[in-house]
């Protein structure tokens, strides 16, 4: 750069084109966030971990599809895929959530956003949607690969394909539940610190530390405590819902008994509360 | 054209801290200097204009719009450059400014075009494809200015734009701001605690202290020629002082200079004649202009 500040005199052009509304801003921030989640438009370093996790998931799905087509055996169901990948999902959230929110806090970019027509709520919705979509893709794409493998090698013709589709679509819904819950918790934790490493550590800690609590509760002699044990951790919470909804064929093998609806209510409340807390957090940040 | 009007604008933060107290001012388009010490309320004033903080009392109108109610309309016409560091290190300036252009509602292609335009106007060329983390402070300040300019605002709010720059960088930044104000047709509010810096480029000046308005006026009226002639001679200042006093001219001494209150143009001739009569070497005879800073020091002492 020339420190003397020489500027070619081409003249300043005023802009008279369209200015899009807040919905378009949200959408644009969502796409930006979704790309950033997979390191697109970022440095090569930012791509390593998301694609490592995604690669492992894809590889697993391909192997499962291959086994399925060769032996006809279904080792893991579509919905069960999300359950068995839960630790990779935590890893992914711990990498991506700080990328989406801590980075803006760290660099102090937020005043630039909030001095524009964008509002705190727009920012929160766009980031949440981007995070949830990223997790959903992480699960949904491998599930789709499993479906393709099964559908092309089915021996029952069209009927077999529809059978598989009947398994895939609810599993996609189940993945969405995983995505919404984990996105909310991950973003909320990450929004409290500008340091990406701290945020990642915090996310892993919250998810993993809650697992022993489940273990302790599950080993208590009371069946009620055993049934409610899964509520203590986000992973077992979602797993419990999967178990309840599928009638015991999917999800974690928890003795949830008749407490299924409570699991569902807690999941809905959890998502709502994380959203409200995020909104409150960014209302405060937005006033600089 | 009046662009900013406030009437009795007051902002009290929770805990009883008064950031702005009864600020009433009307600002014309142009380059406006907003001066005051740290904590005088400059940043609060800017935040209120952006609709980030609601005022606790009084009214403010920017382009005859209320920032509290018509926030989006105001923000679409205003560009803001914050004082603090606000750039992520791991993206290129071109990408970052494009993203923020889109956040101002520009469509994709327009955003990209205007981003490179804005970066060109602030003097960043090929460097704009490099990651911001590797930029010098001067380049970072330029990127911050470019992002404020990218959506073609009618008013720029610049919070301490020369912060952290070396003297050459300061001059470059100030001439850039002056250029934006004079050639681009964009009004600029420049916040600074350095009066000497902004008075060079501003059309008008608002001085605040402790949240109160000290003075708001056009620079030209502030620096109006005062009716004082400054006379400086090589030696014999004393003799000249005596000679002038004898003629009934009101003379005061100011170090090596004599200050003569100018009652009419004839004063020039009378001083010259006296100097010639005494056979002195005249070094200087000029009409004194107040520097803006002097006005404020006077005013401030009066306030205290």
UniProtKB/TrEMBL annotation, chain A:
<keyword id="KW-1133">Transmembrane helix</keyword>
<protein>
    <submittedName>
        <fullName>Membrane protein</fullName>
    </submittedName>
</protein>
<feature type="transmembrane region" description="Helical">
    <location>
        <begin position="197"/>
        <end position="218"/>
    </location>
</feature>
<feature type="transmembrane region" description="Helical">
    <location>
        <begin position="124"/>
        <end position="151"/>
    </location>
</feature>
<feature type="transmembrane region" description="Helical">
    <location>
        <begin position="171"/>
        <end position="190"/>
    </location>
</feature>
<feature type="transmembrane region" description="Helical">
    <location>
        <begin position="48"/>
        <end position="69"/>
    </location>
</feature>
<feature type="transmembrane region" description="Helical">
    <location>
        <begin position="75"/>
        <end position="97"/>
    </location>
</feature>
<keyword id="KW-0472">Membrane</keyword>
<keyword id="KW-0812">Transmembrane</keyword>
<dbReference type="Pfam" id="PF12679">
    <property type="entry name" value="ABC2_membrane_2"/>
</dbReference>
<feature type="transmembrane region" description="Helical">
    <location>
        <begin position="262"/>
        <end position="280"/>
    </location>
</feature>
Automatic annotation (TrEMBL), chain B:
<keyword id="KW-0813">Transport</keyword>
<dbReference type="Pfam" id="PF00005">
    <property type="entry name" value="ABC_tran"/>
</dbReference>
<dbReference type="InterPro" id="IPR003593">
    <property type="entry name" value="AAA+_ATPase"/>
</dbReference>
<keyword id="KW-0547">Nucleotide-binding</keyword>
<comment type="similarity">
    <text>Belongs to the ABC transporter superfamily.</text>
</comment>
<keyword id="KW-0067">ATP-binding</keyword>
<protein>
    <submittedName>
        <fullName>ABC transporter ATP-binding protein</fullName>
    </submittedName>
</protein>
<dbReference type="GO" id="GO:0005524">
    <property type="term" value="F:ATP binding"/>
</dbReference>
<dbReference type="InterPro" id="IPR027417">
    <property type="entry name" value="P-loop_NTPase"/>
</dbReference>
<dbReference type="InterPro" id="IPR003439">
    <property type="entry name" value="ABC_transporter-like_ATP-bd"/>
</dbReference>
<feature type="domain" description="ABC transporter">
    <location>
        <begin position="4"/>
        <end position="235"/>
    </location>
</feature>
């Amino acid at each position: 750069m020339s420190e003397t500040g020489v500027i070619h005199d081409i003249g300043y052009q005023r802009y008279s084109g369209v200015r899009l509304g807040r919905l378009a801003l949200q959408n644009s921030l969502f796409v930006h966030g979704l790309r950033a989640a997979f390191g697109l438009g970022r440095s090569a370093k930012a791509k390593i971990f998301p694609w490592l996790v995604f690669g492992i998931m894809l590889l697993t799905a391909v192997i499962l599809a291959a086994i399925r087509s060769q032996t006809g055996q279904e080792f893991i169901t579509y919905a069960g895929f999300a359950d068995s990948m839960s630790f990779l999902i935590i890893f992914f959230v711990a990498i991506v959530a700080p990328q989406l929110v801590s980075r803006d806090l760290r660099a102090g970019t937020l005043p630039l956003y909030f001095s524009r027509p964008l509002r705190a709520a727009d920012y929160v919705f766009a980031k949440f949607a981007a995070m949830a979509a990223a997790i959903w893709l992480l699960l949904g794409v491998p599930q789709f690969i499993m479906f393709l493998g099964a559908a092309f090698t089915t021996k029952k013709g069209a009927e077999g394909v529809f059978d598989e589709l009947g398994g895939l679509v609810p599993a996609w819904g189940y993945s969405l539940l995983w995505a919404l819950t984990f996105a909310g918790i991950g973003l909320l934790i990450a929004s409290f610190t500008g340091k990406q490493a701290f945020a990642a550590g915090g996310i892993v800690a919250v998810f993993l530390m809650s697992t022993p609590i489940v273990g302790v509760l599950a080993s208590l002699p009371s069946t009620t405590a055993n049934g409610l044990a899964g509520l203590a951790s986000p992973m077992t919470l979602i797993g419990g819902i999967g178990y309840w909804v599928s009638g015991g064929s999917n999800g974690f093998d928890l003795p949830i008994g008749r407490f299924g609806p409570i699991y569902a209510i807690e999941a809905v409340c959890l998502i709502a509360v994380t959203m409200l807390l995020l909104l409150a957090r960014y209302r405060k940040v937005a006033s600089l | 054209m009046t662009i900013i009007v406030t009437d009795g604008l007051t902002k009290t933060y929770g805990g009883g801290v008064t950031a702005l107290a009864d600020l009433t001012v009307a600002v014309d388009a142009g380059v406006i200097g907003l001066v005051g010490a740290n904590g005088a309320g400059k940043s609060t004033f800017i935040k209120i204009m952006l609709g980030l903080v609601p005022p606790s009392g009084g009214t403010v109108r920017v382009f005859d719009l209320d920032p509290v109610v018509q926030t989006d309309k105001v923000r679409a016409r205003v560009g803001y450059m914050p004082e603090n560091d606000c750039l992520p290190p791991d993206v290129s300036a071109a990408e970052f400014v494009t993203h923020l252009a889109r956040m101002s509602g520009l469509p994709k292609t327009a955003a990209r075009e205007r981003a490179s335009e804005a970066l060109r106007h602030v003097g960043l060329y090929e460097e704009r494809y490099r990651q911001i983390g590797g930029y010098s402070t001067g380049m970072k300040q330029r990127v911050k200015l470019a992002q404020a300019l990218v959506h073609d605002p009618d008013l720029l709010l610049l919070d301490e734009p020369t912060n952290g720059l070396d003297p050459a960088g300061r001059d470059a930044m100030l001439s850039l701001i002056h250029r934006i104000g004079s050639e681009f047709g964009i009004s600029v509010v420049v916040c600074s605690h350095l009066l000497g810096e902004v008075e060079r480029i501003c059309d008008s000046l608002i001085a605040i202290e402790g949240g109160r308005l000290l003075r708001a006026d056009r620079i030209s009226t502030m620096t109006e020629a005062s009716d004082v002639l400054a006379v400086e001679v090589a030696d014999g200042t004393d003799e000249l002082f005596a000679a002038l006093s004898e003629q009934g001219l009101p003379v005061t001494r100011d170090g090596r200079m004599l200050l003569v209150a100018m009652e009419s143009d004839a004063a020039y001739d009378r001083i010259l004649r006296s100097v010639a009569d005494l056979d002195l070497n005249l070094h200087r005879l000029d009409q004194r202009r107040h520097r803006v800073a002097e006005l404020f020091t006077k005013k401030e002492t009066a306030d205290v």
